[in-house]
Design goal:
Elements lengths: L3 H17 L9 H8 L1 H20 L3 H21 L4 H11 L4 H7 L4
């Protein structure tokens, strides 16, 4: 079984692999194909996977939840690559938010 440092390494390695696919051929790499199709396609795929995860959670199918959660994480990282958003930026944002309660943090967000 993986410990937490191994888990973080998996995310880090996947992030690097996704970035390396940016210049790969869309004919040979699914990740390259998504990135080549642009932000809208990447966002759509993330949304689809999130819905599938939510549905798996509703029926409490643990193996399906694991599989769909992995898809969500992958597609989130692809979308982050497509939008030039680094994992470090997101982790810094999470760290910033952890400095206050969730309710206070949510109330402090500016509405568009």
């Amino acid at each position: 079984m993986m410990d937490s440092s191994d888990n973080l390494q998996v995310i880090s390695e996947l992030t690097k692999r996704i970035a390396s696919r940016r210049n790969a051929s869309p004919d040979t790499s699914y990740t390259a194909r998504l990135l080549h199709e642009g932000v809208a396609k990447c966002a759509k795929k993330l949304g689809e996977e999130a819905i599938e995860l939510a549905l798996a959670a509703v029926i409490a199918d643990r193996s399906h939840i694991r599989a769909e959660a992995a898809d969500v994480l992958y597609h989130l990282l692809v979308l982050m690559e497509a939008t030039d958003t680094s994992l470090n930026e997101v982790l810094s944002e999470l760290d910033r938010r952890m400095q206050q309660s969730g309710l206070d943090e949510k109330a402090s967000r500016k509405r568009p």
